[in-house]
Structures are given as C-alpha cells and as structure tokens.
C-alpha cells in the first residue's frame, strides 16, 4: 500500500510541477523520483527488488542496501535510454548542420510558393506531411523531417509554432498504432496467436477517421490563422524579396554551391533510416562527420559549428537522460508494478461485464503514466487474464489496451517529444494543454469506432 502511494505521489507531484511551471522538466524528472525513492528505501519498501538486484537473500537486505541500490537502478535506467540519447545527439547535430548549410531552403521556398502566403494551406500541408512521414513508425524521424521542412516556413509567415507541434504529434500518435510501431508490436508479442492482419483491420477505421479529424482540425486552425494574419497573395517576386530581406549573419554558413551533395547526403540518410539497413545511430554519426568535412574544411570552422549547435543537442539529450533516471527508479523499485496493480484492482468484480470498456479507460492513464514496456508487458497480461474470467477474448482486451495510446505521446516518458519541443521552442506544459483536447477527440473516435464495429463490446 505504501509503495502504491509513493508511486502515485511521484507521478502526480512531477506532473504538477511541470504543468504549473514551478520547476524545469529536467530538474523535476530527476529530483522527484530520487526523493520519493529515498523515502521508500528508508521505509524499507524495496527488500525484494534490492535482493534481486544485489543477488543476496531477502532477509539479508538492510535499509542501507535499499538506499545504495538506487544508484544501480539509475544506472540501469540510463543504460536503457542511452541508445535514444545517442541517436538524438547525432540526429540533431546532423540536421542542425543541414539547416546551417541551407539544404532545406529550396523546400521552404517551394512550400511558401505553393501556399502563396495562405496559412490555411501551410497548416493542412503540415497535417498531411506528418501523416505520410509517420508511416515510418518512428517519432524521431517524423519530427526531424517535418520540423526541418516547416519551421522556416512558420517563422517567415509568422504562424504559431504551437500549431506545428500539435498537428505533428497528433498524426504521429494515430499512425503509431501500425503493427510495426511500438505499442501494437508489444501487444502482438504479449498475446500468443493474435492475428496481426485482423488487429490491423480492426484498428484502421478508427485511425483513418482520427487522421481525417486532425486534418479537418488543421483546416479550421488555418482559417483562424488566415483571419489573424490574412492571405498575403505573394508573387514569386514577393517571395524572393522576403527571402532576401531575411538574410542575416547565418547566410555566411550556407553552402549553395554544395547543395546537390548535401541534398544527396540528406536523402540518402533518410532512405537508409526508413529502410532500416543500418542502425539509426550509425547513419547520423557518419552523416554528421561527412557534413562537417564536406561543408567546413578548416578545424576552426568545424569547432565553431559543433559548439554553436551543441545547445540544441544538450537541451534534448538531457531530458532523455532524465527520463532514464525516472524509468530506472520507477521500474526497478517496483513502483511501476504497484501503480499498475492499483489501476487494475480498483475495479469491482461486479463491473466485469464492462471489462472491455474498463480496459480502454485504464489504457489512457496507463499509456500516459507508464512507459509502453511497463504497460504492455506488465499490465496487459493481468488485464487479459481478468478478461477471460469475464468472457472477453485476449484479442478484444489487447485491442482495447491500444486505444489509450491517444494520450501516450504527451507523456514525459516519450523520449522524442523533447526533440520536438526543443526544435519548436515550446513549453511542455503549454504544449500538453494545447494537445489534450485534440487527443481527447481522437480517443472518443477510437472508442466509438471500436464499439460500432463490435471489436470492444460495451457489455458482455
């Protein structure tokens, strides 16, 4: 009971500090779990997990052992997120260099030319491109491609950067349910004998409707921006003048004479990334080195570019490190399991006939407060077994557990959102609030579609 209270207190306190802007996200995501974990250790709540980690009998575990093992758990958490940290480190450095050399300038200019200064067209284009790129199943790839393409456009047309960050994450949230993405792949792994094609067929109608909902939302957001800014009806000459007038000191970093080589390097990196031929870390590591050597010949120029872009890298990677601390302590201490059990055990047996709907409702906070590994590998098996007692098939329970993913991308435990927030310069709390109402709409669409199709019965 005490462990459950500490687990919920950790999550609630962390989110409260973030949403009220009382503490920097990195400070909160490290300090709060560390403090709460120390409290649990001093209360002697970690005997079993500490014995497992230290490989000693439970009876031999002391209070001091439970305190000192926290360092080991943090290290294990950092090890799990290190791959993501290295990926983001080199990916951000690579794309920062590509922005420096101006490789996306022609694309930016083309988007502006097609929109002719119409905010509505830009926002609808943002939604569509986010949908297409999200089919890769990787949030980092989607963020890098869409942000590098659209951020210059949004800045030049004075559009709200929040719209870009919201539309991108909403479409990525929806497409993240494809079988080759994280959550659905975990459901397939946990539930033996599940029909992958049947699962995809059940998910697609809700995904399509939700994606259309977001695109329609982009249309109305575009109308709002059009009323605020107007349509500039830019001619090609006007567009050239805009780009010329925004020239600044950074133009000295651009390498227009090397544009074909840089374009090939960028496209090749993205093709290799989506094709999965090499590990993404290797792709961006080599890409970063090649970009430096090709575009900046001298040692001084290379040092300046690395130092200048390191701020963007640090702002994102440090949050991934923080998430590793949180996950290491939360998972290894048993707080994750305690929180998951409390979510399941709170349901009275008399409501068993509504188990499908209950699983859907559990999946929303479960997907937000827990990592996908913790929820699908820890909570889902319990939900499946309970569902069998109430007459629900593993397929129905597995499908229902995916619908709460409508909120998962807003979770501080989702690593790539720190890249998105860093690139757009947005505050996490404000961004979460802006996204929530749209995520709620997506959630209702998922539920309504599932009920109409009979995939998740309202009552059995």
TrEMBL record:
UniProt keyword terms in alphabetical order: Membrane, Transmembrane, Transmembrane helix, Transport
Molecular functions (GO terms): citrate transmembrane transporter activity
Subcellular location(s) per record: Membrane
Boundaries of every Citrate transporter-like domain copy: 16-404
NCBIfam families reported in the protein's UniProt record: citMHS
Pfam families in UniProt: CitMHS
GO cellular component terms listed in the entry, alphabetical order: membrane
Protein name: CitMHS family citrate-Mg2+:H+ or citrate-Ca2+:H+ symporter
Bilayer-crossing regions: 26-46, 85-104, 163-182, 202-222, 263-293, 313-330, 351-370, 406-426, 438-459
Membrane topology designation: Multi-pass membrane protein
